[in-house]
Amino acid sequence: MRHKRRAVAARSSFAEGVLAIPAGTTCLAVGCSSADVTACHYVDGRGRRCETYWCPEHVRSVASQPYCPRHAGIVMALNLSARKGHRPDIDNRAPSLANWIGNDMDLGLRKILREVLDRHDAETIVVEPICYVFRAGNREHAWERTWTLANHAGITLRISIGVVESADAVVRVRVGERTLEEVVPPWVEHHRRREGLDPHTDLQERREFYIHLFDVIGEAVGQQRCRRLGLDGGPTDIYPDIPSASD
Ligand SMILES: [Zn+2]
Ligand SMILES: [Zn+2]
Questions:
Q1: Which end of the chain is more exposed for a tag (fewer CB within 10 A), N or C?
Q2: Is the pTM higher than 0.85?
Q3: Which ligand is closest in space to the CA of residue 58?
């Protein structure tokens, strides 16, 4: 979902710790005009508030605090992470872009996994919601969606779609630890260049973008499965963990 903001007449202020709601504010949910609203409680690492307002029907609650739908997902993922205290900037696109691409690819990735699932090994498909990953090595704050195959011993195959906060227009596609693509989606690139696009071309570009990602993921998954079965999967049999040039 694109993050919407309603123009408000006055900036929110605090009175005895309670967020004042600007007069005339209505719920931001599409088609909802309720004036019985609560502010999203998200505050980013720089102390900036989300400043969106939601009615009881459309507000989301996480740990008894009200949030907009977008920040509810972010706060839930942060609460599940081992690293506490991190709060991405309110205008950082990493969580929403990773989630957006993940939602668009979900059905296709499940299909790929169903086709290679090893039932004799009791493998099952596990799909995770958006999650926050901190990599201490390069101090990278990433947001990822993952699709895995797992058996009784653990994960046997992992596909991830991630976006790093410091490069929040770039989608990173991985199978295992191997990075297959680091790419700016065409619609994000057009937005960055402030280029308008007719709907037909936009749709065509999106379709080609996803077809390409499914192609590279399908190929990498096939290679991984061949290696796992000890079949000839090409050169990657010999050096299975060779990183791509973009690693
Ligand atoms: Zn509402
Ligand atoms: Zn919010």
A1: C
A2: no
A3: 1
